[in-house]
TrEMBL record:
It comes from the Eukaryota. Keywords: Oxidoreductase. The keyword Oxidoreductase applies. It comes from Pichia kudriavzevii. GO terms for molecular function: FMN binding; riboflavin reductase (NADPH) activity. InterPro entries: Flavin_Rdtase-like_dom, NADH-dep_flavin_reductase, Split_barrel_FMN-bd. Residues 36-229 form the Flavin reductase like domain. This is Flavin reductase like domain-containing protein. Pfam families: Flavin_Reduct (PF01613).
């Protein structure tokens, strides 16, 4: 039959005319995961502020694929979500500042992103919550990276403008300076809980630019359970050739 296409509908196979779809009435969890794996998204790392002495066991962070711009006016605001319970979430709730890192598309960034994703994987494994050693192993990513890969925000900032942003004196914010193209310094705004996730909105207070990576690459992308980089632009048939 001409102009027909076969679509898999969960555990059945049906034939439809080209361009037509149907919905399934079966539980959608696995197919929902498969559907969302067809969508590419930006992989970014969030690091949380902490107070007190410099101690890597206090330094938390996580890899996100849900960061998006919410609004520009009257001030820039971002949104993302975090699965809870989360040491990173608790740290931001207590200390209110965070850094979002736009990563360069490299194998080093992939390694870094996987390292910071271990906390979420720990939650999903549903391990015994009494196993504090296992919890610490998965929720302290800075213990697993070299000191040369990060610095404290207060040691990096060089802007002496009267209105330049500074952290509260008792707080510290680790930033990943080695593999980041841009670092967005943010302040907690409003948070909403939906089931086992928190939807965060944050005000962008400052942006650090890597002078050695001051060009647009598209960042590190996550698609179909793997990391990727942006390819060549598609040809727009409506664009006139020079």
């Amino acid at each position: 039959m001409p102009h027909e296409r076969v679509f898999r509908v969960f555990n059945s196979v049906k034939t439809f005319k080209r361009g037509f779809f149907t919905e399934s009435y079966l539980p959608p969890v696995e197919e929902f995961k498969n559907a969302m794996s067809t969508v590419g998204s930006q992989a970014m790392i969030l690091t949380a502020s902490f107070s007190g002495d410099l101690d890597v066991t206090k330094m938390h962070g996580t890899t996100l694929s849900s960061v998006s711009s919410l609004t520009v006016y009257p001030e820039p605001v971002l949104q993302f979500n975090i699965q809870v319970p989360s040491a990173t979430s608790s740290s931001i709730h207590q200390n209110k500042y965070l850094a979002l890192h736009i990563l360069s598309p490299s194998s080093d960034s992939v390694k870094l992103a996987r390292n910071f994703s271990l906390g979420s994987r720990f939650i999903n494994m549903q391990m015994n919550s009494d196993n504090t050693n296992a919890e610490r192993k998965h929720t302290t990513p800075f213990e697993r990276i070299d000191k040369q890969e990060w610095e404290l925000f207060e040691d990096v900032i060089q802007n002496d403008r009267p209105d330049s942003f500074h952290l509260d004196p008792k707080l510290h914010l680790p930033v990943l300076t080695k593999n980041s193209e841009r670092i967005l310094i943010c302040e907690k705004y409003k948070v909403f809980q939906i089931y086992n996730h928190e939807i965060w909105t944050c005000k962008v207070k400052d942006i650090l630019i890597n002078v050695h990576e001051d060009h647009k690459t598209g960042g590190l992308l996550y698609f179909n359970r793997n990391f990727h980089f942006v390819g060549n632009p598609l040809v727009d048939p409506n664009t006139k050739k020079d």
